């Protein structure tokens, strides 16, 4: 498991994300930008049309840096800031062709990552005052996992495992193949002694087996609210409990009030609704 600090992914990761995105958008060249005078300069501003938690400024700026290092971006807010509708997020100055070429890709990063951060903050707000921590999942946009995982941290959540390499998560297919929860946990310990071992359970019999097997964390899959409270009481803090499945915003508070330690929510990164942003460009001399 990685930390919950909103530290940016590596420079190489951000550069790679942007490089791929620009390549698919620009291809052999921006043929529409060619309509603008080659020497024209422009100034732009980005505003949000709705309330949001901002995220993605590094990817936004990297888009223009890769297109034209002379483009200047001046931010008035930062990742993690809560912004109101109509807020001017940044001003941009540079060659007009560079600004119009980078506009869509830069906004795509900013609005998508802000969407994840905003959704996460909504769930964090709903559970505030309880012990429950909001986690993400591996249900991310292909190729943008580290960016979205960062956005979750910016929104106040924490990351579950990054991938299949940094923690063991035993689910029903693994249990079936191993023969039992106890056998799966034992094999995981033998193969990967330094990693957290978590196992999913679907009923109280499996919960007790996971406890006896010594799992580091237990995931309660599709338990009813009264069952969650019963599980918390039975476990008595011996092992952290995580809730997965059907964790919608309208019931996350009730889930948290049962006393579970974590809720993992695929919707944070899977059901992405981009924040409504607008970039308004003024071209000099036209």
Q: What's the total number of strands?
A: 12
How many DSSP H or I helices? 10
Q: What is the residue-averaged pLDDT?
A: 95
Low-pLDDT residue intervals, each spanning 5 or more residues: none
Topology:
Layout: H1 11-26, E1 41-48, E2 52-53, H2 57-67, E3 72-75, E4 82-83, E5 88-95, H3 96-127, E6 133-135, H4 145-154, E7 168-170, H5 172-178, H6 181-191, E8 197-201, H7 204-213, E9 217-221, H8 225-235, E10 241-244, H9 249-256, E11 262-264, H10 267-270, E12 277-283
Parallel strand pairs: 6-11, 7-8, 8-9, 9-10, 10-11
Antiparallel strand pairs: 1-5, 1-12, 2-4, 3-5
Helix pairs in contact: 1-2, 2-3, 3-4, 3-9, 5-6, 6-7
Structure description:
With 286 residues, this protein is α/β, with parallel strands linked by helices. It has ten helices and twelve strands. Strands 6-11-10-9-8-7 form a six-stranded parallel sheet. Strands 3-5-1-12 form a four-stranded antiparallel sheet, covered by helices on one side. The model has no long low-confidence stretch (mean pLDDT 95).
